[in-house]
Amino acid sequence: MLGNQIIFIVFSAMIVIFSILTVTSRRILRAAVFLLFVLIATSALYFMLNYQFLAAVQLTLYAGGIVVLIIFSVLLTSHIDEKFESPALLKKVYGAIAAIFGSILVITTLLNHPFVASTDVPKDVNMDLIGKSLISWGEQGYALPFELISILLLAAMIAAIVVAKKIKTK
Questions:
Q1: What is the dihedral of CA 148, 101, 15, 41, to 10 degrees?
Q2: Which residues of 117-144 are buried (b: 16+ CB within 10 A; e: fewer)?
Q3: Which of left, alpha, beta for 82 (phi over 0: left; psi -120 to 50: alpha)?
Q4: Tens of pLDDT, residues 61-86
Q5: How far apart, in whole angstroms, are the C-alpha atoms of residue 47 and residue 113?
Q6: Which domains does the chain have, with CATH numbers?
Q7: pTM, entire model
Q8: Distances, alpha carbon 60 to alpha carbons 63, 66, 137, in Å
Q9: Average pLDDT value for residue range 13-28
Q10: Could you give the 3-state DSSP secondary structure of residue 118?
């Protein structure tokens, strides 16, 4: 087994394990930290595929942005020790059915898709082209996605505050 394959298996296992821990953890702060590990391992896979820009965006936007917003929101609302209530049995069954259905869908899609290596020549990229693309609204522009990302970050912060500020009914 090659070193790249071992590293891929390690990062893939990290993603699976920490994803399960994220959704099964009843403590808000632990779930956010587990999510951070998932996003970092995903970024590492992007680095392995030589998608440095996508990996950097993954680290800065998701791992550095959304998770930090969630953690700060939890810490600012002073509910760090609060636990989520345990879901009802019916919700667990529905969640398991959805997970199994999603897994079957992903596996069949991966097995039925013929993955072929690209023979295209890599494009020459310079800083001028990247800068113009970042501020452009056109077909190759990134201004609109960055605006959508800012809305995503705002929604993540609002959602984190709503989750952390749940009023306890007595």
A1: -30
A2: eeeeeeeeeeeeeeeeeeeeeeeeeeee
A3: beta
A4: 777 777 777 777 777 766 666 677 77
A5: 23
A6: 3-84+116-121 (1.20.120.1200)
A7: 0.62
A8: 6, 9, 22
A9: 89
A10: coil
